[in-house]
Amino acid sequence: MDRRVITYSRNVFLPLTTVCHNRCGYCIFRTPVHEGCIMRPGEVNEILAQGAALGCTEALFTFGEKPGLEPGFPELLARYGYQNILDYCYDLCETAIDYGILPHTNAGILTTSEMERLSEVNASMGLMLETTAKLRAHRFSPGKDPSVRIAMIEDAGRMKIPFTTGILLGIGETMEDREESLLVIRDLHRRYGHIQEVIIQNFCPKEGTPMASGKGVDTDEMCTVIMLAKDILPNDIAVQIPPNLADARQLIPCGVDDLGGISPLTIDYVNPEHRWPEFERLEEIAGNRVLQERLCIYPRFIRLGWFHPRLGPLIMKLDQHIRKEERT
């Protein structure tokens, strides 16, 4: 990738349910099982239709980890005719494809058979490693066991799934923990070559959570970690930051390659108090970099053919469209 270029994708954010089996100390996304905790099919269709009209190329499907383990959730989901959330996600991914939008799913911990099935309708997938350290923030979150998350990222590599991962800063980890996390990601990529981007994300304290009084990290500390990531990670992995959570304009010179998915339509449901920057501001944020839109599957994985055949026509169509926009 040309390091004078900074990329982003245009997406819609679709949180299919806020129910989660984890109890992370910093999270406000998770809710108990209740009426309205599942995004209705009609609502998803409406968002996809509007997103397609706005030129979105990525449908980010996400939900709480293993919601089916929470009492009452399977019964609620059954009202929509589904036995589990992954079947629901699969069908809605197909709907996204019908609208001309490529799905990218971040569903927490999945088995190899679950990933294999979802890869039929996803151009890429993701799972934040967050950290290799065992932290107090994760003591009630079985899915945040570092060994479990590392194993899934490795399984994705064996399956040749273009993958996004990342680390979360300011949740109790040390600088040594951050380095170890980046080294683990580097080694996984060296073995399988499947990691397309690593997110360096700063924790933002949320009212009403056990970590509401946390300080997070400042711009200087984030810059240090970004430079560390650039030193450790291979050059074919993009370093990404979320431009709604951090001062992207100040951090780009530290080595940022990508601004992630930005939506003209939906909010960041994990950090709803932080709005996406308007697309008109992206050129300003990019500074002296060339701003370039991308798909949720990176170009080298398109060239390698790391996608299910049913996705090929749409990937090629959208890739050609983006390349044409670059030339004009």
Overview of this protein structure:
The chain has eleven helices and nine strands. α5 (146-158) packs parallel to α6 and α6 packs parallel to α7. β5 (163-169), α6 (175-192) and β6 (195-202) form a beta-alpha-beta unit. It is 36% helix and 16% strand. Strands 1, 2, 3, 4, 5, 6, 7, 8 and 9 form a nine-stranded parallel beta sheet that branches. It has helices at residues 41-53, 73-78, 85-98, 112-118, 146-158, 175-192, 219-232, 248-251, 279-286, 299-304, 312-327, and strands spanning 5-17, 58-63, 102-106, 124-126, 163-169, 195-202, 238-240, 258-262, 290-293. The protein has 328 residues and is α/β, with parallel strands linked by helices. The model has no long low-confidence stretch (mean pLDDT 95).
Structural class: alpha/beta
Question: How much helicity do the residues have?
Answer: 25-40%
CATH topology: TIM Barrel
Total domains:
1
Biggest sheet features: 9 strands, parallel
Task: Examine the secondary-structure arrangement and name the CATH architecture.
Answer: Alpha-Beta Barrel
- Cα distance spanning the termini: 20 Å
Low-confidence stretches: none
Average pLDDT: 95
Principal-axes shape call: globular
**What is the overall number of helices?**
11
Q: Class in CATH?
A: Alpha Beta
The total count of strands amounts to 9
The radius of gyration is: 19 Å
